[in-house]
Amino acid sequence: MDVLDIFRDLAIIMLFAKVFGLAARKLRAPQVAGEIVAGLLIGPSVLGFVQQNDFINICAQIGVVILMFSAGLGTNLRDLLRTGPKALAIACAGVAVPLAGGTLLYQCFYGFAPWGSEKFLTAVFIGVIMTATSVSITVETLKELGKLKTELGTTILNAAIIDDVIGILVLTFVIGFKNPESNPWRVGFNTIAFFAVAIVVGFVIYKVFQFVDKRYPRTHRIPILALVLCFSFSYLAERVFGIADITGAYVAGIILCSLRDSDYIEEKLDINSYMIFGPIFFASIGLKTDVSGITWDIVIFSAAFVLVALSTKIVGCGAMSRLCGFKGKDTLKIGVGMMTRGEVALIVAQRGLSEGMISSVYFTSVILLIIVSSIATPIILKLLFGREKKSASD
Prior knowledge:
The protein has 394 residues and is mainly alpha-helical. It is built from 16 helices and no strands. 79% of the residues lie in helices and 0% in strands.
């Protein structure tokens, strides 16, 4: 491919992604939804301005690795460690129930398959997509309502963080089983070995970064070295341990999340992610979405996918929160607060496509889920808390 064609494609992707991203934000939808629609519009399914190519795919992969590194970097490790059994239990239910629901949904539509077969793994992967929680919209809503610092708000926030950690672990296991030569014991051993090495090596790396950060605070060398760590862990995770590269990137971010200048690292990385790699990644989702392959079966499946994904989060997290001592409408608020999906769901879906576990036509279901959950969650939360305020005033 000619380098001038690459420049043209980049210009088109970045322009359309920005315009549609801003339009989505004006409509109070996630900006990433606009960027995905932009990719769909300029891609081969509609206008055909940009075609998929190796360069865009590589940039998209870099983008997803940086996004996962930033997610780990933005984790509050102290809150995560002291969050207590309540958030952990709610997070586990928030993964287990959607995972089971998604697996059952796919099998109800396309037939039940024997354990371990390729069709069964595809069904499980549909469930894995449903496990991810994007708490950013919920956080903004709770902040607006003045409920973020309450026990309820803290529980939702911490449960969502743990939810994503467990979801990434489940993703790692499922991708490991895709290899015909793999077996449960080997996948489990590789995963445990990676995290054991990451804890030991990560502690040493953290101390080195702490020394450098103390001696050269807020200098460019710190985010550069952080990016080196991100790519190194991504490489080691997949090449040496046979688990997802995004898992390595996420762990690398967690290693540095307690650093004094972690916000500075995140700020510098966000420039690359926001301006180049992020828009390319989300637009590439649209480029890969096969609209021509959409049938009535897919439309019906997408509608069912959204309903199951939303209801299983509410049921799983709500029921577990009741067992943890929350009462009345608080259990419903926790369930609703956990039902938003965003970047992690897209990352998981994209990973499944690259591994051949799902078809690109199922991106339609994921995109619809993100849009519906992002619009419905703040509306329902405001109604629930609004009724509470009204009852208090009465």
